[in-house]
Amino acid sequence: MSTMTNIVGQLDAKGLKVAIVAARFNNFIVDHLISGALDYLERHGLDPADVTLVRIPGAFELPLVCQKLAASARYHGILALGAVIRGATPHFDYVCAEASKGIAQVMLHSGTPIGFGLLTCDTIEQAIERAGSKGGNKGVEAASAMLETIRVLEQL
Ligand code: INI
């Protein structure tokens, strides 16, 4: 009987080039996502000289900037970081929906793994929890998912 083929992505960031796109909106939260992601990637072998950090206005701009970075073919992976916090208007729903749909589209069309590090929270407290306190750090999660996906795709 033949044995199954197992494909597993090693969490090794050595030699990779990574772009991080980070929204300036809610930067007091997003800065923690950036530092969490950088800390994770460097502990997994990434050379800081191989990181490009791009600051953009808000989450709504994430898809366009990810698209341009993916089209440049300079990066093995991209990290999209931002924080949308619900306010009193429906703006929140539009920004979240467009940012998440847009990022997924860019990833599928370009074939470049994009770590989805967009917090979508009802309150500032929730955002703080997910940016490096009791809810973990969404920047770290997104970095890990991007790294694993890069290493899986290499084997397919
Ligand atoms: N952008 C965010 O990244 N987070 C938010 O919470 C947010 N809210 O709440 O409005 C937000 N809006 C700005 C938006 O992403 C665009 O930058 C802006 O509309 C200009 O295109």
- Strand content bin: 15-25%
Number of domains: 1
CATH top level is Alpha Beta
Q: How is the biggest beta sheet arranged?
A: 4 strands, parallel
What CATH calls the topology is Rossmann fold
User: Over the alpha carbons, how many angstroms does the gyration radius reach?
Assistant: 16 Å
Order of helices and strands: EHEHEHEHEEH
Instruction: Report the strand count.
Output: 6
The first-to-last residue Cα distance is 23 Å
Flag low-confidence runs.
none
Bound molecules: 5-nitro-6-ribityl-amino-2,4(1H,3H)-pyrimidinedione
Task: Outline the structure in words.
With 156 residues, this protein is of the alpha/beta class. 44% of the residues lie in helices and 22% in strands. The protein has five helices and six strands, in the order βαβαβαβαββα. The strands form two sheets. Strands 2-1-3-4 form a four-stranded parallel sheet, with helices on both faces. A two-stranded antiparallel sheet has the order 5-6. The longest helix has 20 residues, at 91-110. It binds 5-nitro-6-ribityl-amino-2,4(1H,3H)-pyrimidinedione. Residues 23, 25-26, 57-61, 82-85, 87, 91-92, 95 line the site of 5-nitro-6-ribityl-amino-2,4(1H,3H)-pyrimidinedione. The site of 5-nitro-6-ribityl-amino-2,4(1H,3H)-pyrimidinedione has 16 residues, from β3 and α3.
